[in-house]
Amino acid sequence: MKSDREYRSMEMRFAPVEGEEKSYIVEGYASTFEPYTLLTRDGIDYKEQIEPTAFDEADLSDVVFRVDHVGRVYARSSAGTVELWHDERGLGQRTDLSRTQAARELYADIEAGNYPKMSFAFTVAEGGETYDKATHTRIISRIAKVFDVSPVSFPANPSTELGVVTRDYFNGVIEAEKAERLEREQLELRRRKMMMKLKLEG
Prior knowledge:
The chain is an alpha+beta fold. The protein has two helices and 13 strands; from the N terminus they run βββββββββαββββα. The protein has one domain (6-160). The chain has a five-stranded mixed β-sheet. A four-stranded antiparallel β-sheet has the order 2-3-9-8, with no helix packed on it. A hairpin with a 2-residue loop joins strand 6 and strand 7.
């Protein structure tokens, strides 16, 4: 199993307030199953897609809710204040920030727009990814564990601010594709030279 965590941005919205008492609930999808572009290099869009089966065996037993993936824990699934599920759309989360004063203050910050996006941290299971050369798409079929869901101060632009693990993965893919293109070009050049030589000798 890989030990390095990866991070992806997610949308966040507020659950409707029911009755007179404020709910302090935030919810959204940590992941959807539609392919998305992670970066563009040399005019090529490199994409990623998380398959609907990816969360079937994922460890969701103790997922925490904190800010920017570090520091204080405001809620967690093992305490019953973070709920996660996966359905035909993706991996959803619903977090109750009503239990402590600090959590309620964080909810107020989120409500004020100070944290417009969220991110989630995860690891890919060993052998849980493949690469489709035709579409330049990394396909994640099995996620090992989800660690946290976090409102973030500065949502990363996936085209420029990939995490180390993801950046290394795509750098390796891009270098391999460049090497393949160079080899094809050299073979084509040698073929043309051979054809020219045969014409001259003929």
